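Subject: 3 beta-hydroxysteroid dehydrogenase type 7 structure
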Amino acid sequence: MGSTSRNQIYLVTGGCGFLGKHLVQMLLEQEPDLAEVRVFDLHLDESMRHLNRVTLIQGDITNPEDVRTAVQGANVVIHTASLVDVWGRFSPEKINAVNVCGTQNVIEACVSEGTQYLVYTSSMEVVGPNTKGDHFYRGNENTPYKSIHELPYPVSKTKAEKLVLEANGRPMKGGKHLVTCALRPTGIYGENHPLIKEFYKQGLLTGRWMFRAIPASVEHGRVYVGNVAWMHLLAARKIQESPVSMGGQVYYCYDSSPYKSYEDFNMEILRPCGFRLLGSRPLIPYFLLHLIAFLNVFLQWVLKPFFTYAPILNPYTLVIASTTFTVATDKAQRHFGYKPQYTWEESLSRTVKWLQEVDTQTQAGK
């Protein structure tokens, strides 16, 4: 059995990102043994500098020396830094450098600096949906599923998770061994979620009308960002107390958010801002969506020399939206006592309140 020391120093890579900022706030509010949170990011959010016990560190996850300096002296690393891109905004080389090489840099820094505990933010896309559109219905961490990846992002997350789990047990100085685990969030939502804000902006262009394109029967698991942050904190505590049971394990991130299609779930957040979803059934035939998705890929290729064209709809995102992927598991509860910090009603209320504030500012011309 391990033990949790007092005066803990946490390093959060990607700490200025969507999940990272929620995680930092969760640590400040809920971790009684916290001495310092180091926030490591390429682009710093200066509004976080005033926070007590927070140290901002600007650095590049692809630079081993930057990572090593940030890790030095930390008790726990929570590695959330990642390029999330399924639209073609970044080159495959850039995605691999950040997600795979960056993760390897974190592992090597932990080993060389004697930081024994590493919690990695993986993704459901390590498993699926696969490119064949095979449904994953109420699955758990042991449910068989044929994972087929082609795009750089899911390929990179798969490689990075494998690196983290295989690093569990690596010898370190002083006779210690590295202890690692990985958490796989399903679709995260919550305040400041960039994709929800993008859907909001697109909906304004159509007079706050959204058009159903995917059958309501296609279900997806979604999880509130505050609960994802809470699960990371609990995993970080438990991996220190019980390294043998936690080391090398992978967990889905889940809560009580309802299973719905992406469109129907997004409407739960958009509807209070006056948005309406038109159609009980898809208004656009699937073959036409498929054609538009491939046309977007063609336009992306044609326009690449001039600027980055990265529409939301492409063949991969169409498959994801059209494929049921839901999890039903209690592994995190059994292994480290996880229960959602926020109910579905609280999660929805907090997210809606944020978007209504965005809407008010938008209408005021800010």
